[in-house]
Amino acid sequence: MNDTNDDISLLAVVENAGCHDTMAFLHHSHSSETTRAFPERSSSSALDHSLGINANGLVLRAPGQDFPPSTNRTAGDQNKLQRQLHHSTLNYCQEKDTTKVIKQSRYKSKSDRIESSLTRTIGSCIRCTTQHIKCSPNTTNLVGPCLSCASLTIRTMPCLRYRITHSNLYRTAFYHYQFFKNHLMVGPKYGDFHIQRNWTQNDIRVLEVAQDSNVVLRLVVREFVPSFEEFGSDDTRGNKMYGIPWAIADPEEATKEVNRYLDRCIGNYLDANLDYSDHLVWGIFLWAVRLSVFPQPNKFLSDVIRLWVASRFLEGRWRCVGLNTLGAENLSHRYGKEEIVQVPPFVNYQMAAVFTQRILEPLRVTVLSQLQRLILSNRKENWFTITLSVFILLHNYEQQCRFHRDFARRRDFPVRFVEMPVINAIHSGAKTILAYFHYACKGQRPFSPEHDWSKDEANDMAHLDRDQIAFVKKCRHLTQNNVHLQTVRDGHDYEERYWFVGQLFEANWVPKETKECSLLA
User: Fold this and answer.
1) Helix 279-291 to helix 466-480 angle, to the nearest 10 degrees?
2) Considering all CA atoms of the chain, what is the largest pairwise distance in Å, rounded to the nearest integer?
3) β-bridge partners, 59
4) Does position 47 have pLDDT exceeding 70, yes or no?
5) Residue 125 sits in the same domain as residue 261
């Protein structure tokens, strides 16, 4: 017999039958002692003999046949056996396919389906989300509490449908100035890098700038010829935007350089912007920096600190420190004389665009998504990390409000804040983050005087070591005896110290009423 023509393997039979379930079924029934789908050809197993296949893959007998194997069998007999085995395999597949599997619906009724669709549309509230329970909206009052929250007899938190990942952590535009309305700092057209510039033949130069420290940021810039329409634009200081027609040569390389600058200057920015005498703020940041590297690196806390530092990049004070000032020493300042050489206006705008789109936006997405995961995981060991990160994010809002207040004051605006859309976004983000934090406290008041960290109820909320418990008690002492914190709590001086971070320590926190219109100076 010709082995080449008559060689028939089990794999070929099953593939011809078109049923992979048969292969798994046969393997499970006859070869329980091996993990392979098919035995190796070199070994004669029970599977081979039961199907009448020898070590070379030749059919010896088919199921249901009583004649012994014969080496003188003709090709017709061999084909007949193949057809019978093939036919029996097809019958098995057909019988298996005729079994109708009824999938149970996830909805018990049509009204249940409609209710679930409505919940997906308006979103579930924070309480139902954190407790992983069904949020049933009130169809008669969609903006009111859900049915689950309305049924509570003891309520310590309102029913809120905030999304922590939707929060803004920094400003993305200057809405008061026409140039920044037309030239965005976020999105695919950020920084006008999409525009094909008419570059001059001059060589590229390296512009050295610095902000709150002596750490230098080096940017490669190149001269270009502005269009006629661009000559009339002004910056926020009254200088012509294209008066010094130099631009960042390569945004990708600039992004890499800014990231390297950020890595080098974190400690300098913390020293320059934080007050050592403020034991509450300094203590929180000190703990966050420590836990970001010890006992093992905590990338989440590291990213939170990086975001706080990078947000300071948008608050001005940049100055030229190198020899190549590109003529910026002649820039005037309409609102007072500053003892610095300003950054050329268009380069300054592109720097802010790189900071916003390429540095802060990725950090925002990473930090908020990770913070949401930590809160929704309901793990007790996460509470201290959540507390540190929420405090730093609220302090970031506080710093931004102080910058916008100083911005309006330096320019003698009659209002307290010029960019009210930015301030409103800050309030929305702060309320969202605070709501999630207080839900993470699981109904307890960890910073109230009556809270006892030695009781079992405290362990139900958080697992802390002795040093962490001592620090939380210190924070409680600092906030309970802080007259300034108690004074600014009920006002609308959003730029004041502790207006945002103080809400973290309130025992019965509810979202504050904030002014959405411009406040008089």
Assistant:
1) 160
2) 110
3) 53
4) no
5) no
